[in-house]
From TrEMBL, chain B:
Membrane topology summary: Multi-pass membrane protein
Organism in which the protein naturally occurs: Glaciihabitans arcticus
Name assigned to this protein: Sugar ABC transporter permease
The keyword Repeat appears for this protein: no
Transmembrane feature ranges: 12-38, 58-81, 93-113, 144-166, 199-216, 253-272
Length: 308, 280
């Protein structure tokens, strides 16, 4: 083994050296620095955010931005955050979990069968439904916020959990993903075979189509959950006060930070490291989901995205 | 059978897609239930805050779309050229991870980064002559600041999508180019970028439509800067003010409708002319 390696290595490097002209070498150096620069740009703020809550307000201003403070300071900051308005942060987090969880369940229950029906069955309204889905899918979700608010206000639902759960469960992008998946990855013959064997439509869907659709169910769930967790505008207008999810609460917290808000009305003030900790806490669930689904995201997302 | 399976979704589509749109149309053309034609629109257009808001959003969109297209394509090409698999995967993942921070969280994080007193890149801000947070978020800097925030959270996802599209270019084509002596730049220019065109325009239209809806970034910055960033900076903020500060739902609906028409128009143009979704 080592003998063959020894004989091969010089050859390989010789070929490479010959290949790389000065121009191409310069190109590589350029590509390398561009990648490095953007890595710093994307990663540095997150690293800073992970370290900031371990410092006191004074240390945050004076110490090296990338130094680690102390675990005891982290505990102090945590206590200050959870002490704010008797632990309202937990109420906000609970609201977020409830809204996004309920919306996720409804979204999956209505989205997967709809995508399946559009891909695998024929019915009169199929094409209009598909076109409408494509158009609505491309509308940014903030575009409908005020009209949805007005509609919900007309039926007196503002302030009820349903005022965010139901709009969050409407997920045309998920229908489109499921539709693409079924129409490209699952053959109709397979379903027909099951029908000939005497299985009813519901059984065919549940026993055959659903198990095959696991990857797309995960993908739809991921996008629905992360998108809704981070949504700000809709809950901001429909869920005031203690019913707010954490994203809206976070902006609320900001008004108690003297540095950004010198005339803050509240008697309890929030230090910068505590605000950083709150930011971290608010995104922790999504960040954890991201970390665990790393492989599936970087490959799975393109699998869904590039099928034409 | 198709009707049963799609019924739940259809109800939601009607309730939260079609109905709010119809309701907004109704409100935009009426006042107190009576038809008033284009009066609401005339009032909105005549409002002294309307055209500045249009201008703000337009400038931001130009800066953002140019940066997004340029850098996403460049970074995707570079990442795609990396042959060591784990390096390429890790870089894509690191680019992608800020996507976990969207909404208020990302703006809050950038509040810190833009404040020279705590920012880890304070030396950069100071080198640009920005000594305080209020100076940094002055109104002329906002298009660039919003671009940085939006790019930071959103570019990674697009890079992953472009990377996937680059992977779909067949090896034969790339091989042929190499044999013909094309270097990375010529390959990118004559083969890869033309084949990405569909995805680039998809990204452009989606980001254009989404960018018109600017709300959370100026709102949080406005809250943090005590009025240095005006509360009526963007069109959506103006629509919000109409509805909740002036109690003028008709005017608010008129602005929402304008924004909706822009978004749907762009989407429809893409669906029917772009051909990305043609499958049957």
């Amino acid at each position: 083994m080592s003998a063959t390696n020894l004989t091969e290595t010089p050859e390989v490097t010789a070929v490479r050296d010959k290949d790389i002209s000065p121009g191409r070498w310069l190109g590589r150096a350029l590509a390398f620095s561009v990648t490095g620069l953007f890595l710093v740009f994307f990663a540095l703020p997150i690293v800073w955010l992970l370290l900031a809550p371990t410092k006191t307000a004074r240390e945050l201003l004076l110490n090296n931005p990338f130094s680690f403070g102390a675990f005891s300071t982290l505990a102090d900051n945590w206590n200050q955050l959870t002490g704010f308005q008797n632990g309202i942060i937990f109420t906000w987090l609970g609201n977020s979990a409830f809204y996004t969880g309920a919306a996720l369940i409804i979204a999956l229950v209505v989205t997967i069968p709809a995508g399946y029906a559009l891909a695998m069955t024929d019915f009169k309204l199929r094409r209009p439904l598909l076109i409408l889905t494509l158009i609505v899918m491309l509308i940014p979700n903030t575009a409908l916020v005020l009209p949805i608010f007005l509609e919900l206000s007309a039926v007196k639902l503002i302030g009820s959990p349903l005022a965010v759960i139901l709009p969050f469960s409407f997920f045309p992008f998920g229908v489109y993903l499921t539709y693409i998946y079924f129409s490209t990855a699952v053959s109709k013959d397979l379903l027909d075979a099951a029908r000939i064997d005497g299985a009813g439509e519901l059984r065919v869907f549940w026993k055959i189509a659903m198990p095959l659709a696991t990857p797309v169910i995960a993908l739809v769930g991921f996008f629905n959950l992360t998108g809704n967790w981070n949504n700000y505008f809709l809950p901001f207008v429909t869920e005031p006060g203690r019913k707010s999810p954490v994203q809206v609460g976070l902006a609320e917290l900001l008004s108690n930070v003297p540095l950004f808000n010198p005339t803050s009305a509240g008697s309890v003030t929030i230090d910068l490291p505590v605000l950083a900790l709150a930011t971290l806490v608010s995104i922790a669930p999504v960040l954890i989901i991201f970390l665990f689904s790393q492989r599936f995201l970087v490959t799975g997302m393109t699998a869904g995205g590039t099928k034409e | 059978m198709g009707y049963t399976f799609s019924s739940g979704y259809t109800v939601l589509l009607l309730a939260f897609g079609v109905l709010p749109t119809l309701y907004a149309i109704f409100l935009a053309f009426t006042k107190g239930g009576a038809f008033v034609g284009f009066d609401n629109f005339a009032k909105v257009f005549g409002d002294y805050r309307f055209f500045p808001a249009v201008q703000h959003v337009a400038i931001y969109l130009v800066v953002y779309l140019v940066c997004l297209t340029l850098f996403v394509v460049l970074l995707a090409l570079v990442v795609h050229a990396i042959k060591v698999r784990w390096i390429s995967t890790s870089i894509r993942f690191l680019y992608y991870i800020p996507g976990a921070l969207a909404g208020a969280s990302s703006v809050l994080l950038w509040l810190f980064l833009l404040d020279p007193s705590v920012s880890p890149v304070a030396f950069l801000l100071k080198a640009m002559g920005l000594e305080s947070f209020v100076q940094t978020v002055s109104i002329d800097n906002l298009p660039v600041i919003f671009t940085v925030i939006a790019f930071w959270t959103g570019a990674g996802g697009w890079i992953v999508i472009m990377y996937g599209a680059l992977n779909n270019i067949s090896n034969d084509v790339m091989e042929a180019a190499r044999i013909d002596g094309a270097g990375p730049i010529n390959t990118a220019r004559y083969i890869q970028i033309p084949m990405l065109r569909k995805w680039i325009s998809y990204m452009g239209i989606m980001s254009l439509a989404a960018g018109t809806q600017l709300f959370v970034e100026p709102r949080v910055l406005s809250q943090a800067s005590k009025g240095v960033v005006p509360p009526d900076y963007s069109l959506n903020q103006l629509a919000y003010l109409f509805a909740f500060r002036q109690g003028d739902f008709n005017g608010s609906a008129a602005i929402s409708l304008i924004l909706l028409v822009v978004a749907v128009g762009l989407a429809a143009f893409f669906v029917f002319r772009g051909g990305l979704f043609e499958r049957d």
